[in-house]
Design brief:
globular, OB fold (Dihydrolipoamide Acetyltransferase, E2P), six-stranded parallel β-sheet, 24 helices, seven-stranded parallel β-sheet, about 700 residues, DNA polymerase, domain 1, 21 strands, binds magnesium ion, Rossmann fold, alpha/beta, binds adenosine-5'-diphosphate
Length: about 700
C-alpha cells in the first residue's frame, strides 16, 4: 500500500487530468514535474472568499478582495502613449474603479457583464479604486473550489491561471488517494501536536478555516526544518566519531609566557572563546569551531592563542587568509607578538620570491617553522607540513569548501577553527553553521572610540568634500565609496572611475587620490591598498571591494555615496574599516532624500547602532533570509515554505528534536524511522552524504 502510494506520488504530473504536454511544460517552469511536486506547490497567500466585503465598506490602504460585475470599461492612451485600461465594477453596495497601466490586452478579458473577483490595495480617489489588481473570473462550474471558501492563491507563470492551478492541485490530491505516507512516527507527531501529513497537505491548499491553515503550515515547516536539522546533526555526529583528532596540551610554560607577554588585557568574550577552544583542543575529538565576532573585536589574538597551544604540544599551525596584504599584516603582528617566545613564524603567498618560498617550504617540512601565515598558496600541492595540528581560516566565507578541505588534508585530522567577521543572527547560525560549534565575541575591546555616523543629503555633498579636505589637512586619510550594482557592474564601475577622474581634476586637485575596484587584478588591488596603508594616498576612491580585515588606523573618514544602494551588512562592513586608531572617526552616508522604505530603515539602523549582531538581526528583518547573504553564499538552505526569521521557535524545536533523535538512533535503523531514513537518503543523494547513514 505504502509503496503504491509512493509510486503514485512519483508519477509524472501528466497523469493528472487536464495536464497535457503543453500545460506540463508550463508547470515545469514552476518546478512541477511529478504529482508530489503539485502537492508541494504551496499557495503564496489566501483570500477569504467565504464572505466578500461589500464595495461600500472598503477602506483606503487595505488589501481587499471584492466580487462584482463589470459595468463599464474604457481603453485609451495617455499623451505619452501609455495604454490605460479602466473598468467600473459594481456590486450591490457600490462601485469600484480598477485601472491597468500598459496592459491593453486586459480589455480582451474584461467585458461588460463579466463577473469577476478583484484583489488589490484600495485607494480612495473620489470613489474606491484599485490599481492593477489581480483578477479572476467567476463561472458556475466547479465554483466550490474557487469561491465561498478560503481560497489559495498560487505563484503563477504566464499562461497558467489561478483557477487552472487550483483545480489541478485538487485533482492531484484526489489522484493520490488523499493518502501520503507520513515520515514522522505517530507518537512523535502526537507529542509535538503536529497534524498528520495528509491533512497538512490538504489544508495548506484548501483550509476550512484559518486555524487549520496555520496548523498545516506548522506541520510542513516543521518537516522542512526537521530534515535540515537531521542532516546537520548527522554531519556533526559523523565528524565527532570518525576522526580521532589530536589531544593538545592546554597547560604549559609556553602558553603561560604567551599570556604574560600580551600587550593588553583580554576581554571577557575573548576569554570565554579561548576557554571553549582550549576545551575542544584538549579533547581527542577533532575541533570544528566557528569563531564569530565583529570587525575589530579581536579574533586574531584568540586564534593566536590556539596556535600557541598547538605549538606547545609539538605541532604546527597554519593561518589561511584571503589576501596577500592581510597575510602580510598578520605575519608582521604575529611575529611581533611571538618574538620573545622563540616560536618561528613563516609566510607563504604567491607573490613571493622563489627563494623565500623555498625557505618557507623547507621550514614547514622540517618542522623548523612552527606557524605559517598565508593565502590559498598554502594549499598548493608541493607544500608539506611536518605535523600540522591546527588550521585557522580567517574570513572563512572567502574560501570555498574545497579549499578548506585541502588545507585540512595537509595534516592528520588537525583541529579546525574558522573565523568570520560577518555576524549572523542566531537562527541563521543554527542552520548555516548548524554542524559547527560556535564561539562568539560580542563586544569590542575597551577604549575604542565610537564612530560618529551621519546621514547627509546629496545636495550637501560640497560640505562633505570640505570636511574631507579638513581631515586630510590634519593628517588623516579617508575612503570615498561608490556602489557597485549587480545588473550592470561595468556601468557602475565607470561611476567610481569617473568620480576618481573628476575629483582629481576638479575637486581635490591638491590631494593624492587612489582608485580601487573589483576589476583590477588582485596584485594591482594590493598595490593600491599598500600605498594607502603607507599613507601615500589621502583619499581612496573605492567600490565595496576594499579588502576585509585590513587595519589602517590613520583612516578616519568613510564616505559612502548613494548609500541607499548598499545592503545593511555591506554598510556595516564598510564602516568597520575606520575607527581603528586613536583619532575620532566619522562615517558619512550620502543619499537622496527620496528613497525606498527599506533603504530608509537601513540608514536609520546604521545611525542607531554600531553593534554588528543587532544590525544583522535588523537586516534579516528588512530583507528576509533569502536575500540576507546574496545568492548561494554560506550554503543557506533553500526553504520552500519555512521562514527562518518568523519561524524561529519551530527551528529551535526542530533542532532539539533532530539532535535528540540522532542521539537515540544514530543510523536511523529503528523501523519507526524507516520512512525518515529513506527521505534523508533521497536528500543525501544529491549532496553526496550517503555515508552518514551507512
Ligand atoms: P578582528 O576580529 O577584526 O580580526 P583584530 O584581531 O584584528 O580584529 O583586532 C583588532 C585590533 O584590536 C588589533 O589592533 C588588536 O591588537 C586589538 N585588540 C585585540 N584584543 C584587544 C584587547 N583585549 N584589548 C585591546 N586591544 C585589543
Ligand atoms: Mg581579522
Amino acid at each position: 500500500m505504502t509503496l503504491q502510494t509512493e509510486q503514485v506520488l512519483q508519477q509524472s504530473a501528466q497523469y493528472i487530468k487536464g495536464v497535457g504536454p503543453a500545460k506540463f511544460k508550463l508547470l515545469n517552469r514552476l518546478g512541477v514535474y511529478t504529482v508530489a511536486d503539485l502537492l508541494y506547490y504551496f499557495p503564496r497567500r489566501y483570500e477569504d472568499r467565504r464572505n466578500f466585503l461589500p464595495i461600500a465598506h472598503l477602506r483606503a490602504g487595505d488589501y481587499a478582495t471584492v466580487k462584482g460585475e463589470v459595468s463599464s470599461r474604457n481603453l485609451w492612451h495617455s499623451r505619452r502613449g501609455m495604454a490605460i485600461f479602466q473598468i467600473l465594477l459594481r456590486d450591490q453596495s457600490g462601485v469600484l474603479k480598477a485601472v491597468w497601466f500598459n496592459q491593453p490586452f486586459m480589455s480582451k478579458y474584461l467585458k461588460i457583464g463579466q463577473k469577476v473577483i478583484l484583489y488589490g490595495k484600495v485607494e480612495l480617489v473620489k470613489r474606491p479604486q484599485m490599481n492593477t489588481p489581480e483578477f479572476e473570473f467567476i463561472s458556475g462550474k466547479d465554483s466550490s473550489l474557487h469561491v465561498g471558501r478560503i481560497t489559495p492563491i498560487y505563484p503563477l507563470t504566464a499562461h497558467l491561471n489561478q483557477r487552472y492551478l487550483r483545480s489541478t492541485v485538487n485533482k492531484a490530491l484526489e489522484h493520490s488517494h488523499s493518502y501520503i505516507p507520513d515520515v514522522l512516527p505517530y507518537n512523535f507527531r502526537q507529542r509535538l501536536k503536529l497534524l498528520p501529513l495528509t491533512l497538512a497537505i490538504r489544508y495548506i491548499h484548501f483550509p476550512a478555516d484559518f486555524e487549520k491553515k496555520d496548523a498545516a503550515y506548522r506541520r510542513l515547516v516543521f518537516d522542512e526544518f526537521f530534515l535540515l536539522q537531521l542532516i546537520l546533526s548527522l554531519k556533526k555526529l559523523h565528524q565527532s566519531q570518525t576522526k580521532s583528532g589530536i589531544s593538545h596540551q592546554t597547560e604549559g610554560g609556553l602558553i603561560e609566557r604567551f599570556k604574560q607577554s600580551l600587550p593588553f588585557k583580554l576581554t571577557a568574550h575573548q576569554e570565554q572563546a579561548i576557554k571553549e577552544i582550549a576545551a575542544d583542543m584538549r579533547s581527542p575529538r577533532a575541533m570544528n569551531r566557528l569563531l564569530q565576532g565583529d570587525v575589530g573585536s579581536g579574533k586574531t589574538i584568540v586564534a593566536l592563542y590556539a596556535m600557541v597551544l598547538s605549538v606547545q604540544s609539538g605541532f604546527q599551525a597554519a593561518l589561511m587568509v584571503p589576501t596577500e596584504i592581510l597575510a602580510e599584516q598578520h605575519y608582521l603582528s604575529l611575529s611581533k607578538l611571538l618574538l620573545s617566545l622563540e616560536i618561528n613564524v613563516g609566510m607563504l603567498v604567491s607573490g613571493m620570491s622563489r627563494s623565500a618560498r623555498e625557505n618557507t617550504l623547507i621550514g614547514l617540512k622540517s618542522g623548523e617553522l612552527n606557524i605559517v601565515v598565508g593565502t590559498h598558496a598554502l594549499i598548493e600541492e608541493d607544500l608539506e607540513f611536518k605535523n600540522l595540528g591546527l588550521i585557522v581560516i580567517d574570513e572563512q566565507h572567502k574560501f570555498g569548501v574545497l579549499q578548506r578541505l585541502l588545507l585540512h588534508q595537509k595534516g592528520k585530522a588537525p583541529d579546525c577553527l574558522v573565523m568570520t567577521a560577518t555576524p549572523i543572527p542566531r537562527t541563521l547560525a543554527m542552520t548555516v553553521y548548524g554542524d559547527l560549534d560556535i564561539s562568539t565575541i560580542k563586544e569590542l575591546p575597551q577604549g575604542r572610540k565610537p564612530i560618529s555616523t551621519f546621514w547627509v543629503r546629496e545636495d550637501a555633498l560640497a560640505s562633505v568634500y570640505n570636511f574631507l579636505r579638513e581631515e586630510v589637512a590634519q593628517g588623516r586619510q579617508a575612503f570615498l565609496v561608490y556602489p557597485l550594482v549587480k545588473q550592470s557592474p561595468i556601468l557602475e564601475l565607470k561611476a567610481a572611475t569617473q568620480m576618481y577622474r573628476r575629483l582629481s581634476k576638479e575637486e581635490f586637485t591638491d590631494l593624492r587620490l587612489g582608485l580601487i575596484h573589483g576589476q583590477l587584478k588582485s596584485q594591482e588591488k594590493e598595490k593600491v591598498m599598500r600605498a594607502f596603508k603607507e599613507r601615500k594616498i589621502d583619499i581612496l576612491i573605492a567600490t565595496t571591494v576594499i579588502e576585509v580585515g585590513i587595519d589602517i588606523p590613520n583612516a578616519s573618514v568613510m564616505v559612502i555615496e548613494q548609500a541607499e544602494r548598499f545592503g545593511l551588512s555591506q554598510l556595516h562592513q564598510l564602516r568597520g574599516r575606520i575607527g581603528r586608531g586613536v583619532h575620532p572617526s566619522y562615517c558619512i552616508l550620502v543619499s537622496q532624500s527620496s528613497q525606498t522604505e527599506a533603504a530608509q530603515q537601513r540608514i536609520e539602523a546604521m545611525l542607531n547602532t554600531q553593534d554588528g549582531f543587532q544590525l544583522a538581526e535588523q537586516d534579516l528583518d528588512i530583507r528576509g533570509p533569502g536575500r540576507f547573504f546574496g545568492p548561494a553564499q554560506h550554503g543557506l538552505p533553500e526553504l520552500k515554505i519555512g521562514n527562518i526569521v518568523q519561524d524561529l521557535e519551530l527551528m529551535e524545536l526542530a533542532r532539539s528534536e533532530a539532535f535528540s533523535l540522532v542521539k537515540q538512533d544514530p543510523r536511523l535503523t529503528d523501523p519507526q524511522h524507516l520512512l525518515l531514513r529513506n527521505k534523508l537518503k533521497e536528500k543525501f543523494r544529491s549532496q553526496n552524504l550517503g555515508l552518514l547513514l551507512a
